[in-house]
């Protein structure tokens, strides 16, 4: 095992295997977002062609992204579902173009096994499943885990209660952090049972997915409690509506709030930060990681 970089923190493992691409978790990583949808809450419709996706991927790589996440179905609150054929029509040409252009691990945001298999054929290294294998019963998809196992892909399991269409209708929980932890523990167990090694699994508390403003803040504050799952933690708070509501800002004016949330997540133990604004996030995360490392080292200066 290599020596950890500045900003490291003891965790479940300092290595993460994403489809044959090994990533060092000795420092927090930044996952750049590539939305291929016409209706995403922040940047829908900005990447209408494979060429546009390729150029955006190159820009994010130049800004310091450690990996990229491509999504072809919007999961904003109230978003309708689209067919698997439409998802693949949007995704696969862009994924092929991005794969040829950048030498970074590529994650695909999907919960459908058939889309996942096609994405693997087109160069994906990881699957990002917002349904956590349908652990809530909304999208039964252990088949997705079997694809990840068979193709050697990484797997992100995210907490969401309900679907994008219904998730914000009721954001009350008796024990939010406990329920998120239990939900993710169940999903991790199902993935392992399907053959996905723990070294390829990340968990995501699902900031903005079926949570109130206060719930999102609580998850960030108590993120460290998810360490009991024994898996690396991914957090995606970038430009989310709770930031807009706290600061009374439009979605395109939430940079500072997004950076503050990223810093809070890193200080609480996050291993990967999913972000739209990669350059600024890389810089903020680097400082947060240095503070975290100094705290871990103690005061013997």
Structure description:
The protein is α/β, with parallel strands linked by helices and 301 residues long. It has a single domain (15-293), classed as TIM Barrel (Alpha-Beta Barrel). It has helices spanning 50-62, 84-101, 113-121, 142-151, 176-193, 213-221, 241-247, 255-267, 278-297, and strands at 15-18, 21-24, 29-35, 67-71, 106-109, 126-129, 154-158, 201-204, 234-235, 272-275. It has an eight-stranded parallel sheet with strand order 8-7-6-5-4-3-10-9. The longest helix has 20 residues, at 278-297. The protein is globular. The chain starts with 14 loop residues before the first strand and ends with a helix. 50% of the residues are buried. The model is unreliable at 1-12 (pLDDT under 50).
Observed structural traits:
301 residues, disordered N terminus, TIM Barrel, two-stranded antiparallel sheet, alpha/beta
What is shown here, in short?
This protein is 39% helix and 14% strand.
Number of domains: 1
Tell me the helix content.
25-40%
CATH superfamily: Dihydropteroate synthase-like
Mean pLDDT: 89
Which regions are unreliable across 5 or more consecutive residues at pLDDT < 50?
1-12
* Strand arrangement, major sheet: 8-7-6-5-4-3-10-9
Q: What is the CATH class?
A: Alpha Beta
CATH architecture term: Alpha-Beta Barrel
Biggest pleated sheet: 8 strands, parallel
Radius of gyration based on Cα positions: 18 Å
Structural class: alpha/beta
Terminal-residue CA separation:
27 Å
Strand percentage: 5-15%
As for the CATH topology, it is: TIM Barrel
The tally of helices reads: 9
Query: What is the number of beta strands?
Result: 10
């Amino acid at each position: 095992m290599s020596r950890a970089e500045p900003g490291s923190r003891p965790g479940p493992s300092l290595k993460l295997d994403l489809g044959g691409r090994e990533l060092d978790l000795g420092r927090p990583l930044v996952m750049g977002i590539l939305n291929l949808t016409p209706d995403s809450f922040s940047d829908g419709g900005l990447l209408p062609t494979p060429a546009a996706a390729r150029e955006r991927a190159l820009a994010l790589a130049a800004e310091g992204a450690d990996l990229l996440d491509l999504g072809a179905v919007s999961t904003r609150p109230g978003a309708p579902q689209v067919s698997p054929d439409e998802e693949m029509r949007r995704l696969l040409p862009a994924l092929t173009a991005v794969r040829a252009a950048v030498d970074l691990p590529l994650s695909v945001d999907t919960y459908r096994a058939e889309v996942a298999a096609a994405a693997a054929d087109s160069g994906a290294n990881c699957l990002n499943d917002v349904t956590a294998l349908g652990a809530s019963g909304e999208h039964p998809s252990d088949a997705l885990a079997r694809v990840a196992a068979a193709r050697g892909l990484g797997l992100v399991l995210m907490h969401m209660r309900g679907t994008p269409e219904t998730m914000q209708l009721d954001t009350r929980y008796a024990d939010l952090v406990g329920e998120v932890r239990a939900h993710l523990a169940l999903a991790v167990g199902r993935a392992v049972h399907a053959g996905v090694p723990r070294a390829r699994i990340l968990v995501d508390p699902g900031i903005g997915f079926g949570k109130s403003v206060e719930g999102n803040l609580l998850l960030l504050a108590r993120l460290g409690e998810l360490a009991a799952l024994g898996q690396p933690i991914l957090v995606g708070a970038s430009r989310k509506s709770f930031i807009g509501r706290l600061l009374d800002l439009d979605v395109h004016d939430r940079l500072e709030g997004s950076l503050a949330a990223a810093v809070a997540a890193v200080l609480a133990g996050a291993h990967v930060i999913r972000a739209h604004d990669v350059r600024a996030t890389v810089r903020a995360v680097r400082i947060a990681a240095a503070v975290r490392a100094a705290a871990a080292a103690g005061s013997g200066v």
